[in-house]
Amino acid sequence: MSQALTSARRLAHLLVKLMxxxxxxxxxxxxxxxxxxxxxxxxxxxxxxACNGIAGDADSYPRQDGRYGRDAAQGASVLVKEGNGGSGxxxxxxxxxxxxxxPSTPLGTGATDWACTRDNITGLTWEVKTLNPGxxxxxxxxxxYSTQSTTNGGYAGTSVGGGCSHVxxxxxxxxxxxxxxxxxxxxxxxxxxxxxxxxxxxxMSQSGSGVSDxxxxxxxxxxxxxxxxxxAVSNTNAVIVNFGTGSISSQTKSSTGYxxxxx
Length: 263
Prior knowledge:
It comes from Parachitinimonas caeni. Pfam families: Lcl_C. The chain has about 260 residues and is an alpha+beta fold. The protein has helices at about 5-20, 55, 70-75, 170-180, 195-200, and strands at about 40-45, 50, 90-95, 100, 115-120, 125, 140-145, 225-230, 235-240, 250, 255. The N and C termini lie far apart (about 45 Å).
């Protein structure tokens, strides 16, 4: 059998797997480190429309987000999760000492209190913002700053600014340093997320009240969060994600923004 024919058959097999399954009325969930959008609703020109899988694709508004993927599987009660979370998301709580803890574990400063959230789909672990005075206080806003010349786009940003009471110099690099020095959840490799990583925990079905999961990501602001990425348009700007709407944009590195770290 030729290599070309073998590749063609493999591609055909993959396409079959990606097609909607008539029996389940949803497409199968693939083992991939990507989150779904959280959307489970469908729409036509007048308003909402039933999200009923392949049967619904006979209408004039086919192939809608809400009919496919992990969110559709959750809606059909066929999605198996390691932890919990809204829509197709799958999160677990991690304690200050790095151990896994029960979903009912409260947020706190004790060794076995909840402090971080693991995304069981992507494998990433996120800090959880707090209401306690300290660097992780949810109201601390910093300016974008990075002295890493290989990743800052040729412009480090502003080293002093923001609106902080507990972050040294009130910039993002100092915030990362303080969290790593503290060894949050037993680790010291925390960093700012990429735009795709940060956007990946936004549940777009909650856009009316902010797009963060209120159970596993409490105390989030419905506002702009900084990413590690310098804008491709101007190296004086950094890419941000709006956790009020889920939109991605950019702002000057001297402007303030909130931070949530990942590892």
